[in-house]
Amino acid sequence: MAKFVSIGGEWSPRQESFSMTNTFGRTLSSNLIVGPDGSHEVKEGDLFIYTGPDREAVKMLKAENLDFFGRNFKTDPEFLQATRNMGFNSPADYLKQIGFDEEEEIKKQKKNAKKIVKGGIKKTADEVNYLAGGKDSTGNKENNFVGGFGAEKLRNAKEVKNVKSI
Fold it and tell me: Any idea where the domains of the chain sit in the sequence?
């Protein structure tokens, strides 16, 4: 899933870092990757670490032919009209009134943009065990158990028998 960070309403890719094996069938060379020997050149089959903009977010931006999503809120016509409707002479007066510190906000968002989102292979979940009792939707009566009294009977998902459709 693409990860973005917003600075003033302009959404740009967040940083990510992960390790993977070079399976691209060629030697990779980039300042964004570090190979096992510390170089920026990785041969096929070697592990490397990628640190750079979120690849999925970059792909989304390239598909739309954009550098960022959104628009700076200070130039947004709806925001400008809303500040006029509230009786402020300019957006700056409104921001001063509510205590908005632009420099502090930009510093905070740039810090968030540099936070590393670690990617990698997710762990798979354990096999689901069903509690005995009741009916299920497979259509096979062998899967129906009378339960609720005595000890609970666990059964693995592999034990559930499906009815083959004709």
Answer: 4-118, 129-159
